[in-house]
UniProtKB/TrEMBL annotation:
Belongs to the short-chain dehydrogenases/reductases (SDR) family. The chain holds residues 42 to 292 of 351 of the full protein. One of its GO terms (molecular function) is 17-beta-hydroxysteroid dehydrogenase (NADP+) activity. GO terms for cellular component: cytosol; membrane. This is Uncharacterized protein.
Length: 251
């Protein structure tokens, strides 16, 4: 069974680039109304226009910073004021940072990773839950294969994604069956967040292929469009998990 999302309301955080941008296009192509959130106004405006062209009946642009609790409340309030309902919440906004732990000098700057990746999703979800209960809606959360792969130079990012994973595993128990939760744990996808950041000076992936998780040496790099399509399909079918590697299913 796959839900018909046409005319329903989907809120996507971090929609100005990467996976979030392509999730907007994917939902738009299926006729969903969209509330799109990010901090960069110019980029987000372009995505809003494209989503309308692709077929979304109505798109609301919300400039907001999910690391701030007051913005998360406003994001949900504006969506409800405008559309009067919420059917899917996609917690996608995230930032990364790459540094060996011992080389981190400004340690407090790393709080931003938790503030955005973890707390941003928690705050937004808390304000959205009453409305999602009313619509018997769905939550999609972008965790990562970083939840279980101890990739060097990404300790705090990995920790933020592992925290998200368990947070939403637990919420599944509390909120189900009214609200379905799909936890997405992608491997590396091509776009802004990953571009260049994981390559060494010779352009090779910087992970040590001898790490005990042998998947690391075989990480498939998927296109962002294929990733977005797979995520929307999983959400509409009410799947609990979508993951790669090595089981990422692109349909
Ligand atoms: P991008 O950097 O391309 O996009 C991140 C998005 O999040 C942007 O739209 C950015 O917009 C938004 N964002 C960042 N911080 C905030 C904030 N404080 N408030 C609101 N919006 C914010 O990243 P990806 O598309 O690569 O990643 C999307 C998600 O997928 C992330 O959660 C990431 O951790 C996860 N992921 C990515 C993988 C990959 O290979 N790329 C693999 C596994 C998981 P703006 O700057 O305009 O606010």
């Amino acid at each position: 069974f796959s839900e018909n999302i046409a005319g329903k309301v989907v809120l996507i955080t971090g929609a100005s680039s990467g996976i979030g941008e392509h999730l907007a296009y994917e939902y738009a192509s299926r006729g969903a109304c969209l509330a799109l959130v990010a901090r960069r106004e110019d980029q987000l405006r372009d995505v809003v226009e494209q989503a309308r062209d692709i077929g979304s009946p109505d798109v609301l642009m919300i400039i907001g910073d999910v690391s701030k609790v007051e913005d998360c409340k406003r994001i949900i309030d504006e969506t409800m004021d405008y559309f009067g309902r919420l059917d899917h919440l996609v917690n996608n906004a995230g930032i990364s940072s790459v540094s060996m732990f011992e080389e981190i000098t400004n340690i407090t700057a790393f709080r931003a990773l938790m503030d955005t990746n973890f707390w941003g999703s928690v705050y937004t979800t808390r304000f959205a839950v009453p409305h999602l209960r009313n619509s018997r809606g769905k939550i999609v959360v972008l965790s990562s294969s970083a939840s279980w792969l101890p990739t060097p130079r990404m300790s705090i990012y990995n920790a933020s994604k592992a925290a998200l994973f368990m947070m939403f595993e637990t919420l599944r128990v509390e909120l189900g069956p009214d609200i379905n939760i799909t936890i997405v744990t992608p491997g590396f996808i091509e776009f802004e967040l990953t571009q260049g950041k994981f390559l060494d000076r010779e352009g090779k992936m910087m992970f040590d292929p001898d790490l005990r998780y042998d998947q690391i040496s075989a990480v498939p790099v998927r296109t962002v469009r294929a990733c977005a399509k797979a995520i929307v399909n999983s959400a509409l079918r009410g799947q609990r998990y979508l993951t790669n590697p090595p089981w990422f299913k692109v349909t």
